Amino acid sequence: MTAEEEPEGQDDDAEPDGATDDAEPAGENDDEEDPARQEEEPADQDPISTRIQQFTEAIGPTTLATALLIYFGYVATRARFDYFGVPLEMTGLSNQTLLLYGLEVVYVPAALIFLGVLTVVAIHATVKWRLTRDPEDATNTFLAAGIALVGVLLIGRALIGMFVQGEETSVVIGTTPLALAFGPATLAYGAWVHGKNRGRPLLPARLARNAAMCTIGLAVAGLFWASTQIAWAYGTGRGEEDARELMERPEIIIDTKEPLVELPTGITETALATAGEDRTFAYRYRGFRLLLSSGDRLFLVTPTWMLGRDQTVVVPDDGNVRIQLLPQA
Predict the structure, then answer these.
(1) Cα–Cα distance between 145 and 321 in angstroms, integer?
(2) In angstroms, how far is CA 301 from the centroid of its own chain?
(3) pTM listed for this prediction
(4) Helix pair angle (48-59, 61-82), 10° resolution
(5) Which of 93, 46, 100 is nearest to 70 (CA)?
(6) Bridge partners of residue 316, in order along the sequence
(7) Which of 44, 293, 318, 326 is 20 to 30 A distant from 189 in Cα terms?
(8) CA 126-128-130 angle, 5° bins
């Protein structure tokens, strides 16, 4: 019994090399472990890629894509009709309609994301080639420091855009959220490059994993924020485009029972003859253009509508009006 129990009571320094690898305490300092040992984390810790895959499977790709399309459609459509002073809540548009509006908005963010991924892949391939070609070279150290410096500057730009308001530091579309998305990622990548160059990571595996999760979270938040700004800008642009093309839309001729008050400039009112049996409609209005028909409402504007000068007329489409369409040449 004494001979068998003696190895367990010996100090770690006196154990053979083979016994040290098998019986090394799990709580030993992570900084002294080599990279191969750091990758062998406890079994209850899943890799980051596995966690992301589990999260995606739990939500469902179709559900996530539909929710994003509805959201981007909502943001863009809200900005589009807000240009004409029409709150989106008044339109009564369905989720299916917002989904269709979201389809035309998502192309720009998707294209930017795919181009960004291609750029990141190219940069990463170049950096890996450099590290493999000249390991532990001083140039690689400067490269890692330069990448980390860019990350720090981007983080600073994101903080300025979020917390400082003023004419000199006004938030430009896409700059602040993109700096928030890529700043921490660039800093983390610089730390990874430096760790690869010196042969072992800068941080213990558990701390590096937590930092990677925070970096991914900031990247997702920044990209989502940037996509929201792009969707709003796209919707505003569509509103401006609608205003320029109003002259080409069919003219809306409306007959009503009661007169409309405060007619916009360019709209003519004609009193209809009341002789005979048809006395339902007494007034006719010409010159309108249809902006939107939704929720039993007609949103009407003039063909020369201008922001800040003209208003949008809302007429209930409840059977008390008669509508005619007159195509334009």
Answers:
(1) 71
(2) 32
(3) 0.63
(4) 70
(5) 100
(6) 297
(7) 44
(8) 70
